[in-house]
Each structure stands twice: as structure tokens, then as C-alpha cells.
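To the team - NDP complex, inputs and output below.
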Amino acid sequence: MQDVVEKVYEQVVARNRGEAEFHQAVREVLDSLSPVIAKHPHYADGGLLERIVEPERQIMFRVPWVDDAGKVQVNRGFRIEFNSALGPYKGGLRFHPTVNAGIIKFLGFEQIFKNALTNQAIGGGKGGSDFDPHGRSDAEVMRFCQSFMTELSRHIGPSTDVPAGDIGVGGREIGYLFGQYKRLRNAYDAGVLTGKGLGWGGSLVRTEATGYGTVLFAQSMLATKGETLEGKKVAVSGAGNVAIYAIEKAQQLGATPITFSDSSGYVVDEAGVDLDLLKQVKEVERGRVKDYVARRPSAKLATSGSVWDVPVDVALPCATQNELNGEQAATLLRNGCTVISEGANMPSTPEAIEAFQSAGILYAPGKASNAGGVATSALEMEQNAGRTRWTFEKADAKLTGIMADIHDSCVAAAEEYGHPGDYVLGANAVGFTRVADVMIAHGIV
Ligand code: NDP
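Output:
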């Protein structure tokens, strides 16, 4: 790293103690920027780098609620409004017991560059809570969401900050959050949240968008080598929104996904994943992966090792951050895997990324390959603003076009800065320069 960039990193570590994931995300972006700043030194002027790593606003709040037993529970809520150069803050809400300020900060930081890559007018933000929806009744989830929104509503709005879903926040939670927002504001501001139900302002394709986009990105990478997904074996981790629709798109494109997982273990289904059964278990019954295995003779549940031990051609990490480490990357490579497209945010550790890049395989970082979700959220905002609703075909075509643009702009930037095929550098360079140019235009704010 250049001196100027190294100094910024040291400051981030000193100022944000103990926030390892945030340090990791900043390091990756700053590492990529060395060739960009060497070519365009003005990006290091005006405290631009120092400003871009500091959130514009961080909100942390108490979320008290009453469980079904009548006991008061207290969770912690977060919203980090990181950068509004390109538009209103935009990024999901995560409900998971591991959520803390450092996790939300890393996600918000990544979101700035991801959103810029989509070429839509959206800034970067992220939020959530250490609330765990697993095992909670619908009524408990509703009461939690209502309490969470009672505070969050002071800080968001269709032109200010537009949250969406992430881990633990799907259609049910967005519904409860929207209901409470509407009640507090006495206004039907459909554009305040995305990921809404189709009957009340949601966009077709939003549910599928992140998973679909991740696979479309893999397909674009393969096309640079004259290959397709047809006939390829695929390992997917996770069994939530992103994983399910990555499996669906991979199947549509002729590949055979054979794995998925949740925090209880991973499933290998050599006959190929039965998507209808997986949707029934996960989306309808809110069950665990063992419930799939119980009804599918070709599937086996593993509780030791990892999903990355399974020999495949393509790996799609779609669960959570740092779920694929250096050793697991080595196993994937040894088994002949040649394509990694990240559906999750920062799922590969720095050691894993290093292994993929040294091996010269196709590796796409999440901020590029999973940007289809937020891109379609921006399309949802556009439909809400125009009080209109597009067909599935129109929204799907827009998503496909956006993913192709992101892919091509990453390729072009990697070449421009002397690292052809380096999608990490390409994604960071494109995202950064788009945001940085606008920050310069807006002055020191
Ligand atoms: P979901 O809550 O729908 O699903 C998450 C899945 O990952 C679940 O199967 C969950 O298992 C598993 N998982 C989560 N944390 C862990 C963990 N610590 N260890 C093992 N398994 C885990 O979330 P999404 O599918 O929406 O999100 C998945 C990833 O994709 C996240 O990194 C998210 O930030 C990213 N992403 C999501 C977007 C979206 O549109 N939803 C957009 C862009 C990125 P269990 O139920 O057992 O916890």
C-alpha cells in the first residue's frame, strides 16, 4: 500500500477499535486503490480518503419489547448512514445475534461502492439489530419490529435513507416495519423501504434479484473464457433468500447445484437440489436443513467439515461474512473449482481471496456479484416514485442489463489499472471513483 493509504488505514484501526470486519473491508478497498491513486493523485487530496472511511452519521438505540411470556426484552438497534454522495442512504437491515457496530459498519462501507457500481442514484448505509428472529413467534417478531421502527422512523425517509432486508429480515419483517412507519407518519410513503410485498409497492424480481444476479455474474465471468454454466456442478452455502434464488438461476442456466447449508449443518444432494422442497422447508415452514433431508432420499446432512469440502466446478457463498477461509479455499481449488461468485457480503477471508487470485481462477467479490439485490431495490424506488408497476420481464431485463454492465465495468477498470482479470480491483476502482468524483464536486461536507 502507498504511504497515504497506509496512514488512512492506521487511523481507521485506531479510531474503530475491535471492529475487525470493518478493518478488513477497509483494507481490501484501500489495497485496491493504490494503482488508482498512483494514476490520479488528486483522489488523495482534500481529505477525501479520510472522509470516505468515516460514516456521515451513526445511530445506536435501545429496542425494548415484550415477549410472549410477558417478559421485557431489550435489544440494540443500529443504522449507519455512511455516504450520501450519490443519493439517499440505501442498504439492508440485518437481524442476527452477532450484529454489532463493527459488522454494520463493514456492511455499510461495502454498500457505498456496491451501490455506485449499479449506476443507480443511491448512497450507502446499513442497519440492524442483535435480535434473533429464530424461534420467535410472528407476534414477537411484530412487536420487535414495531419498537425498532418507532426509533428508526425518525431517521429514514424516501429521500433520506431507504432500508431493505438482509439476514433475518425478509418480507414478513419488512411488512411489520412498513406498517409501523405508516402509522407513525400518517403517510403512505411507499419509497421508504424496499423488499415490500407485491400488493403494496413491492417490485417483481426483488425477491430473486440477489441470487439471480450472483449467478448472472458467474455466467459473464465464464463467458470471458468462452464457457457457460451448462453442466457444471455448483456448491451453494446458506439456505436463505440469496441461496435459494442462486440455486434457481443456476438450474435455469443448466448447472446442477448440489449443496446448501444453514447454521445447523450442510446438505449434499448428489441428485441435484429439489428447489420446490427447499422453498417449502425454508420459505413456507421456516424449518431447518434436516427437514429437507428427512423428505429427500438422495440428500445427506453433514455436521462436520464444510460445504466447501464438496468437489464442484463453481462455488457460490451465500450465507455470511468470513464463511470461507484459506484452507477451505485450498480444498475447493484442489477439487478443481474454477469459479467463485459471492452472493454474501465478504464471505471469503483475505487468505481465501489470495488463494483464488494466485490460482488465477474467476473470483467475483460480493460488492460486484451480489449488487443485483440493491439494484432492483433502486428499481423498486423508481416504480414507487412513478406510482407504477413493471412486469416481471421488464424488471428482469433491467437486472440482467445492470449485472452485465457491472461485470464489464469491473473488467475494463482492472485492465485500465494494469491488473486484467482482477475483479476485486476492478470493482473497488469503479465504485470508488464514481463516489469520489461526486464528493469532490460537493466540496468538503
Ligand atoms: P437469510 O436470512 O435469508 O439467509 C441467511 C442464510 O445464511 C441462512 O440459511 C442462515 O442460516 C445462514 N447463515 C447466516 N449466518 C450464518 C452463520 N453465522 N453461520 C452459518 N450460516 C449462517 O439472509 P440472505 O439470504 O438475505 O443473506 C445472505 C447473505 O447475502 C448475507 O451476507 C447478506 O448480507 C447478503 N446479501 C443479501 C442481500 C439480499 O437481498 N437479501 C443483498 C446482498 C447481499 P440460519 O438460518 O441457520 O442462521
